[in-house]
Amino acid sequence: MKKKIVWGSFLVAIIAICLLIFISLFGNPIKKYTVSRELLNKLEEKYDEKFTLVKSSYYWKVGTYGGVYQPEKNKNIHFTAEKYHTGNFSDYYPEEIWLYDMEKELIPKAKEIFSDYDQVEASTVWGIGSDEAKEGRIPTYKDISNGDALQIIIRAKVDYTDVNKEVVEQKIFTLVQFLKEKSNTVGLMVAFDSPKEAANKEDGFYNIAGQNIRDINNVSDINKYFIEL
User: What are phi and psi of 143, to 5 degrees?
Assistant: First the structure.
């Protein structure tokens, strides 16, 4: 009888430990659902539009709950929202809208100019949306006030010492002229990822903030935005 009690207690303890481990890694399923639904209501109130809850989420590193959402007016956009321990919440809806529009309007031209590069994509500083979206109104990427937040990231798997700088700077200048026509908020970074692993290898990249695009009038202006590491 005592052995049965001991084994029963042991099994209960094992189950409890497993449950705690599961919750710490994947969250409380009930809380995950209720928080994600709560955030859905807050998002619809904040932006005055309808959203679909795609997936409830638990961020085990910080122990917070949230979800992945989709605006009903554009099924191509997905963004995350998260509720903090303080009760406040954040979302990345504005940032995902900007990235989506940049990918449509700017990236095709950038890929045409840098067709021989390995990576050409839109990038944003995550978290600025809460500052830019006033009273739930989201400005376009062309109208945000932060001139350092949006970039086109361009990368090539080559040592920059092997690159023809004149050719690269002409490509950058061509893209800058295109960006001038579209916006003064989107900058660009052109980086070279050397395949060499030598500790003393030279490195560098071009980095032009959106707010500096208007200052570039000649190809010769590009070189001052080169950062040597």
Answer: -115, 5
Length, in residues, of the chain: 229
Beta bridge partners of 122: 152
**What pTM does this model have?**
0.84
Tokens representing 60 are 């085990």
Helices (H), the chain: 2-26, 29-47, 93-105, 107-113, 129-132, 165-182
Tell which residue, 60, 49, 122, 154, has the closest CA to residue 91.
49
103, 123 Cβ separation under 8 angstroms: no
Structure tokens, 105: 């309007």
Distance between first and last Cα of the chain? 73
How far apart are alpha carbons 23 and 210 in whole angstroms?
Answer: 44
Tell me the two tokens of residue 32.
């995950």
pLDDT at 157 over 80: yes
Q: In what order do the strands lie in the sheet with 51-59?
A: 51-59, 64-71, 79-83, 89-91
pLDDT at 61: 76
What is the amino acid identity at position 184?
N
pLDDT at 179 over 70: yes
